[in-house]
Amino acid sequence: RLGQNEAGMATDIYRATADDALSAEELALYHLIMAYRADLGLEAIPLSRGLTATAARHVRDTRENFWAEGKSPPPGANLHSWSDAPYYADHSQPQAMWEAPARLGTGYEGTGYEISAAGTPTVAAALEGWKASPGHNAVIANTGIWEDVRFAAIGIGVETAPGAGPYGGRIYHVWFGTERDPGGAPWVKGTSAADRIDGTAFGDRIQAGAGADLVRGGAGNDSLSGGSGNDRMSGGAGNDTLGGGSGDDRLYGLDGNDILNGGPGSDVLSGGPGNDRYLVDSPADRVVEKAGWGIDRIECAFSLVLPAHVENLRLTGAAAISGTGNGLGNTLTGNAGANLLRGGGGNDHLFGGAGNDRLGGGIGNDRLYGEAGNDRLYGGSGNDILTGGAGTDALNGGPGRDVFRFESIADSEAGAARDRIVDFIPGLDRLDLRGLAVEAEDLRYADGVLSVDADHDGGADLQIAFTNAAEPGAGDFLF
Question: Which of 19, 165, 315, 387 could form a disulfide with 335 if both were Cys (CB 3.0 to 4.6 A apart)?
């Protein structure tokens, strides 16, 4: 019989609260249970957001609707508000509990199986009590009627208010499920103190809160948030997301393709092996990479010179700022403002973005893309490819065999909006017109200007001016 007790609830356990998250003490009980299972040769069980919420509401139900109301179950029985049917220490009538996760609206639609303890002073003592109880131990250790059951989800609830009710105010509820939780893992919430929080072998979500915290994600794809305080966080294996929050933080992605965001403060960010992404919001931040650690990218809204072993830079916002590469083959991408991008050494790719940008390839065989705006492109030494994009652009290949590429009419419209090539050298440089679908008979050169009839109507659709009055030869075109 379900629901008759619900009308008399002092506290609504169907309502989500902050208690639905996992506390540090509840996480400690999880680790103890998993260590015990590992000693038995059993696999770890992933934490479930829905079953953790179920356990938390079960705890709240015990505390508010029974202890605070002075209610007691029959001798040897467990009671709860969502059902009139208690079940006993021998686990007879466990079906009274099975529907609780779905009934409580926690998002976990599978069946739940629960074990409880009360009065023990610590989570370690609670586990020892279960191990000494054949009925409880059978659930944890997958023996007896549970031998062929494979648990795929677990939730933990712990009451930590000594003296607040019977049993010294301490209650422990653990819920097991055989279906994976589509909602994933619960948030692990730290305290205002300096917490030490270790994640699980699965994907975790940890919010440390205030204090100088030590957070380690472990295996799995983790989401770690430091909050305020000078935190030290490491992702471990997996593709992790680390947010330091305020304070001077040290973030280590370790293995995997990680995202690191130090937040306000002077932070040290090190992604480790893998293709990492750094969201850098202060010039005081320091990014540490090593050779062979993957293809990494920094994103920032201020001028920056790429540190060693970081390949790519993306400028954000709309300020007129600069980005400078290092000795690697870099990809530098501008923002919506007027940027100065300098490739440095290596074979670089530079993208101006919106705004009137200046791009310099430096040493190496570089590719420069002005994109929108009236841009100035200088290839530098090496065999470079320059594409002005939309706008009135100035293209200077510099020393080397350079290619000037025009992909559409909008790249260099006829008339005053046309692009100009500063240093074209016939017989050495090339004009790439393959994107226009034209042939030699569609071209006309006069007075330092090349006109292109792209729609074959006899008029000039695209024009290119040559500042040095150089006239390209027949072999200088790519069609």
Answer: 315
